[in-house]
Predict the 3D structure of the following.
Amino acid sequence: MKTDTYYSLVEIINKHNESETGKILQCMLALSFHHLLNCEAKYITINLVEGVDIVVDLDEFKYAIEVKTTSRDAIKIGEKDFGGLEKYKEKGYIPIICVLKIDLHSEWLLIDLDKLRRRRKSTWNNSDLYTDDRFKELSKNLNSTFEKLLLEYATQIIENGLTYLLKILRERGIKYSGK
């Protein structure tokens, strides 16, 4: 993560509560997928309260994504998270857990659900998590896009929080539920 991106994230965290910050980062990740895949908005859905966090429903890319962000050294992945992703996997989606530790030397990790599921843990040390090989190129491009968009929107996000991003989602036609 570039220094400017990190300090923008810190400002967002300092201005908004933990729940809102998580939703902000979830929306930013969804916008990054939208931008990177250059797809119509109707193919991306964001669930801010219940269900799998982001669903990308293109013919060539079917992803079900659970988003986890933290400034701590570990994350929790509950049975509800695993269960939601498993349901999408049964429908042909690739289930991914995207993890971002808010740290100067961090980036979004794209983790294969099956690799985590085999170990049957609910708490994961960030140092034990890594981007799966099959997602390396996607991860590299997604992180670059995320940083570019965050820096573009940072001032407005700091000022107006989630309200600003929901406006952007509406303008782009990206479906979202919850708030």
Q: What stands out?
A: The mean pLDDT is 92. The two ends are 27 Å apart (CA to CA). The chain has one domain: 3-177.
